[in-house]
């Protein structure tokens, strides 16, 4: 898929998917869409993909994000939007910009991700050890940038160490997708002024996925 808008939509869907999964953990106490979560986590390590869709394995890997993005873009006003998803998406794109402006920060994060690759290759994207390692990288490289993304939900759920690690790993994956989106020419103003094009691209991508 070489179309510029399609590729941007795929990358942006990775941000929306991370947001949807973080909310899922906070509200449900765990992950329901485990395939989507594993696709997001694996995308952190996709540093030399053959295509944008290969970052997430395939289009199916980012289906949840495409659906979340489609629903958000279809909403005619703020009352129709999911403001929690919107807040997480904006937070990740803001942090991506702060990361990009910090000299050497992306390179340092990239180097640490490469060091974590052996853990990922040994255990796989769904393993707690991988989540924990990415959570450490989020704390080291992202949390210090500010403003922090405040995740709202069940406080008991959000204090559980495994959920803390999953949330941070997914936020890191969302920021990775935001970096990709930016590299493909994506800009935050486009989510408003080019929403129609993004909506059509998301709907077109979802049409390529066989019905469950």
UniProtKB/TrEMBL annotation:
Keywords linked to the UniProt accession:
Cell membrane, Cytoplasm, Membrane
Main localisation: cytoplasm
Localization: Cytoplasm; Cell membrane
In which domain of life is the source organism classified?
Bacteria
- Cite a single Pfam family from the UniProt record: DUF489
Record carries keyword Cytoplasm: yes
- Span-the-membrane segments of this chain are none
The membrane topology of this protein is: Peripheral membrane protein
Name a GO CC annotation attached to this entry: plasma membrane
HAMAP family given in the database record? HflD_protein
**What family does this belong to?**
Belongs to the HflD family.
User: What name does UniProt use for this protein?
Assistant: High frequency lysogenization protein HflD homolog
Name its species.
Thiohalorhabdus denitrificans
């Amino acid at each position: 898929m070489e179309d510029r808008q399609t590729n941007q939509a795929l990358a942006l869907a990775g941000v929306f998917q991370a947001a949807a999964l973080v909310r899922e953990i906070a509200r449900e106490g765990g992950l329901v869409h485990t395939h989507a979560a594993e696709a997001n986590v694996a995308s952190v390590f996709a540093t030399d993909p053959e295509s944008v869709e290969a970052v997430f394995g395939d289009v199916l890997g980012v289906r949840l994000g495409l659906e979340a993005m489609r629903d958000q873009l279809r909403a005619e006003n703020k009352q129709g939007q999911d403001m929690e998803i919107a807040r997480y998406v904006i937070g990740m794109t803001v942090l991506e910009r702060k990361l990009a402006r910090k000299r050497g920060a992306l390179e340092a994060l990239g180097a640490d991700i490469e060091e974590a690759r052996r853990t990922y290759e040994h255990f796989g994207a769904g393993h707690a050890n991988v989540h924990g390692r990415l959570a450490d990288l989020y704390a080291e490289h992202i949390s210090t940038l500010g403003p922090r993304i405040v995740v709202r939900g069940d406080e008991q759920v959000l204090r559980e160490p495994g959920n803390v690690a999953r949330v941070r790993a997914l936020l890191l994956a969302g920021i990775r997708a935001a970096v990709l989106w930016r590299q493909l020419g994506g800009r935050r103003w486009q989510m408003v002024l080019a929403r129609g094009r993004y909506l059509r691209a998301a709907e077109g991508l979802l049409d390529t996925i066989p019905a469950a």
